[in-house]
Amino acid sequence: MTRKINVAVFGAGYVGLVSAAGLAAIGHNVVCVDIDATKVSKLIDGEIPFYEPGLSELVLKCVANGSLRFTSLPKNAIAHGEVLIIAVGTPPLEDGTADLSQVLSVAKTIGGQLEKYAVVVVKSTVPVGTSDLVTNEIARAMHEKSLSVDFAVASNPEFLKEGDAVNDFMKPDRIVVGTNDQLAIEILREMYQPLCLNENTLMVMDARSSELCKYASNAMLATRISFMNEMANLADCVGADINEVRRVMAADPRIGAKYLNAGAGFGGSCFPKDLRAIAAMGDEHGCSLELVASVISVNDAQQSVLLEKAKYSIGSLKGKRCAVWGLSFKPDTDDVREAPAVALIHSLIAEGATVVAHDPLVSWLSMYSSLPTEIFSIVDSPYEAVVGADVLFLVTEWEQFRNLDVSQLIEKMQNPVIIDGRNLWSNIDFTQTEVKYIGIGRHSFTANKASASVQLRAG
Ligand SMILES: NC(=O)c1ccc[n+]([C@@H]2O[C@H](COP(=O)([O-])OP(=O)(O)OC[C@H]3O[C@@H](n4cnc5c(N)ncnc54)[C@H](O)[C@@H]3O)[C@@H](O)[C@H]2O)c1
Q: Measured in angstroms, how far is the CA atom of residue 440 from the centroid of ligand 1?
């Protein structure tokens, strides 16, 4: 029988809200606090501030049975929690380092108001050494308020993926706890016990290793993506098909099938920022991370691959009408932070094109909201977006886009050119249609270049 633990979660974002609901669902008594009062009042009204499959149902269920509550008053949360989880943002600063101001501000608030023992858990993704900074910040704030209460700090990085976050949280492959404090380990073991499939799920280690493992994991996944994008670019140049190459590679159990899809580059709120943060951490410690730097630069270059393919295919984009399918950085989320589609739209507009976009969840992009609708608009249906278009870009591989109605495209588009940034339609045979289809790494881009060079050599 699990002991019901009083937990406070700071931050009602993707990680904080999922963690709060997940911990409530396994029997704990959770208070979730956010400084964004509008977000909190929406949550109190049962409105979830972002889309995450299964989250709304879970939150509503836990609120209804009293195991989950929301507040904008940190005081209430601190008074409630035996475990205080910090799950606030750590956005990148100009130099790539992680901005710890939100994390340290929560630590200061905790230190200034803590009245009983608590385990302070750092769930945000933070550079190595942050647990020490959090400990110092709490101690300093306590000293200023002449408080003297025992507390422990533990690193507990989160590995959930947006789009499958609830599932990831409820069925974790591993839970990492980084601290040397035995009481904190015991409490966190109790708290996570219902989520541990076996005794190996919970991995206890020192805080520094725990902090580094999150960055190392994301850097590894991003490396696979950039590697495959680099191979795809080579496949385009030499006239090979990256799908066939991937099929062979994935069959090798030493390699495996995941994160091997070539595409328009990775985005989102984690990979780009975490890679820049780990690179900056390396520089700061005199340990230059050459591989990570290459992964970043390959990905930066990949952001312009779709644009280049379009220009190669139809020439100048000035005055051309471009349809974009998919705005979120990946399917099943409405998160557009560092989304490849946002970068593509920026470039298309800079080239003088007009853009009509569609996404199943995203109906507004704040960064382009001031543009006139003749230049950029988001419409409700994918086939509305292609009306009169010279080119269609598929940027996010939403399941809804998989079954393509080719005849509608031909009927509605000015020139049916498809740039498939995720090889979503690579199984469709377009050869008998008037559609010009261009995928990623499928010898469709520079096949002419490749055959030309073969002819030259032969000649
Ligand atoms: N999003 C992901 O998929 C993911 C996965 C694993 C780890 N992470 C990491 O988790 C952390 C949070 O990410 P996120 O995507 O949930 O961020 P988010 O931006 O969605 O949410 C952060 C929330 O914290 C709130 N906040 C800021 N300061 C606060 C304070 N002082 N008190 C209370 N609330 C405060 C904000 O208002 C916001 O609602 C980051 O470090 C991120 O790198 C994110």
A: 33
Ligand 1 atom at minimal distance to the Cα of residue 126: 41
The confidence score (pLDDT) of residue 444 equals 59
Which single residue is written with the structure tokens 């385009």? 236
Residues whose CB is less than 8 angstroms from the CB of residue 161 and which lie 6 or more positions away in sequence, other chains included = 168
Q: Is 88 in the pocket of ligand 1 (CB under 6 A)?
A: yes
270 is catalytic: yes
Ligand 1 centre to CA of 127 (Å) is 15
**Predicted TM-score (pTM) of this structure:** 0.94
**Measured between alpha carbons, how far is 385 from 358 in angstroms, rounded to an integer?**
6
CA of 29 to the centre of ligand 1 (A): 21
161-188 mean pLDDT: 98
**Cα dihedral: 50, 53, 58, 59 (round 10):** 0
pLDDT digits (tens, 9 = 90+) for 241-250: 999 999 999 9
Residue 282 has pLDDT above 60, yes or no: yes
Instruction: Return the CATH fold of 6-205.
Output: Rossmann fold (3.40.50)
- Which CATH architecture fits 222-438? 3-Layer(aba) Sandwich (3.40)
Mean pLDDT across the chain: 95
